[in-house]
Structure formats: C-alpha cells, structure tokens
Write a structure and sequence with these properties.
The chain has 196 residues and is an alpha/beta fold. The chain is 58% helix and 11% strand. It contains eight helices and four strands, in the order βαββαβαααααα. A four-stranded mixed beta sheet has the order 1-2-3-4, with helices on both faces.
Length: 196
C-alpha cells in the first residue's frame, strides 16, 4: 500500500514490535485489548500505540470505540497486567454471581430471581465503588456493620464464604457441569417466555 494506514491489533500478548516485524516494517500500530462486556457497551478497552501513530489517528479510533465502554490508554509494558484484570476478570465475576445465585436457590429462591438479584447486586456494588470514591474495604465494612455480620477474619475475601457455602455437599465435576447446563437451559427458557 502507498496510502496512509494504521494497523490495529487485538492479538493478546503480541507486542507492537512483533506486529511490525510480522508486517515487515515500522508501521503505525495501535494495540487494543477489549473485554467481553464491550459487547453490551460496558467494557474496558485498553490501548497503546507506537510513535508513527498521530494524535488525530488515536482520537479517531478512541471515538469509534467509545460506545463499547471505558477506553483507557496505557503504556505497553502495563497492558498485559491490565488485561489480566479487565480481560479475565469477568469470568471471576460470573463465577461469583453464579455462587450467590446458587446460595439463593438453596434457600428456596427461584433460579431466575436468584440470578437477577445476584447480577443486580454486583452491578450496583460496582457502581458504588466507581461513584463514591471510597475504598472497597470501607464499603464492605459498612455492609458488615449494617447487617451485623461478624467475619471470622477480616483478611479473608468475602468470596470465600460464599463459594464455600455453595458447596452444600461434595459434588463430582460431571455433576456440577450437568447442573450448570440444566440451570442455563432453564434460565434461557424463562427469558424467552418473558419476551413472549
């Protein structure tokens, strides 16, 4: 090509230098790392770029990505570490939501309501962290005081008792997989019924 262009790479773990090597020259490269919530406009999109990229080109791309979520620049040495949080983090959040919902179901809640309550709780809690400016530990302490729950050890993450409570009895991996598949089918059927 003889016209001006910018290479945009979404290849995980592939540095800008490696992209240039594969492309055969010191081309302008912007490296982006979005996460899956970007598909609903609530994602985190990290980016970095090399010296040949102009400010106007960076602005054009970031504006195009703005509807997908929070678009944040980082130096390239930090982008892999940040991707471990924003890219892998959703899987841990989904596990936590599933664990909360499982606890609710074991207490008698319908599966669809337990999942909705758990997801909305995580959504609201995340919003409080972002909007209040308070440390998550301070927000956690406020909840503990309000509901008068004593923690055995304040250093133990709250996720631990929830995940332990989820395991009411020993279950084999195959049984866990079968239960999750059944739960997901039931959840999809309920959502289809609500739309109808």
């Amino acid at each position: 090509r003889t016209d001006r262009f910018v290479l945009v790479s979404m290849a995980a773990g592939v540095s800008i230098a490696s992209v240039c090597d594969m492309a055969g020259g010191q081309y302008p490269v912007i490296r982006i790392m979005p996460n899956t919530p970007a598909s609903v406009g609530k994602g985190v999109i990290l980016y970095c770029y090399n010296q040949p990229v102009t400010g106007a080109e960076v602005n054009e791309l970031t504006e195009a990505l703005r509807m997908a979520g929070d678009v944040s620049p980082l130096s390239e040495p930090l982008i892999d570490a940040a991707s471990a949080i924003s890219g892998c983090g959703p899987a841990f959040v989904y596990m936590f939501i599933e664990a909360l919902a499982d606890g609710g179901v074991k207490c008698g809640l319908p599966r669809d309501k337990a999942l909705r309550f758990a997801a909305e709780t995580v959504l609201g809690s995340a919003d409080m962290v972002l909007s209040s400016g308070k440390h998550p530990g301070e927000l956690k302490d406020a909840v503990v005081e309000v509901v008068r729950v004593g923690l055995h050890d304040a250093r133990v993450p709250l996720v631990r008792p929830v995940l332990l409570a989820r395991q009411h009895g020993p279950q084999r991996p195959a049984e866990n997989r079968e239960r999750r598949v059944e739960d997901r089918h039931a959840h999809r059927e309920h959502r289809h019924a609500e739309r109808d």
